Fold:
Amino acid sequence: MERASSRRPAGDNDTELDVHSPAMRRLLELAARAAQVDSTVLITGESGVGKERLARFIHRVSPRAQGPFVPINCCALPEALIESELFGHARGAFTGALHDRPGLFEAAERGTLLLDEVGDVPLLTQVKLLRVLQEHEVRRIGENRQRRVNVRLIAATNRTLTVDVAERRFRQDLYYRLRVVDLHVPPLRERLEDLRALAETLLTTIAREMRRAISGYTAAALERMLRYPWPGNIRELENVIERACALAAGALIDVDDLPVELNQSYAVAFASPNIRPLREMEREYILAALQRNDGNRTRTAEQLRIDAKSLRRKLKGYVAA
Structure:
């Protein structure tokens, strides 16, 4: 859902990364090393885990930090426009091209270009993208001359590109060209050590923007947040905190301020005397939500605060398992 605030989603902002889990500490160490060279980086992970956030961190600690950081969401652009956005076009190259226009590779000169959701780049564009990476040159649509570019490329995806390569939806040569350094961001349910710090940081930011005098969480509310599997990851966490911050009657966010699914998940978790794996709880919760919506995936994805593609992938994984 679009926000009136100019704040980017927490999963994708470039504020200081406050991590406590061993997996994320190791990931940041690898990212910091990779930042010192210009090798391409492929960042993978579920929707909402903070892939753009990690890309911004790499840019910020790299020798290119003084240059621009230019992100583009490849799945948000029509196929007919993506090449113009990436490579630029000359005046008259197509209907509506009234002026020469540089592409994002040129806009990111001496900086970093992030291709988010790179798995959605059309096959024909993949061929041209591979050439740019190999030759360090772009040719605007409608021009004959090549232009040198000095850009560090980071790609991100929530897809399993090896499957796309096997099914011929993604070029194998481009996959290996992008995956010089491979960084995987674990889902929030696998790094709950980070959740408390994220929840506190987000609450401080959101309460300030809303001008609400809310200073923290009750122990019961925080316990429910820690028990929830967070299928929408950090993006869902931000939405939950924003909702709670808007509805809270006191200085602390309490159980009643949280969405119903967090309290339902908590009740399910403790219905059995044994503590159950988070993956199992997530699976049952998503399938129950789908059944409650009579199989309507779009409505289910909206209620779970995840995108429809992520829901389809999860459901496909449940069938495969």
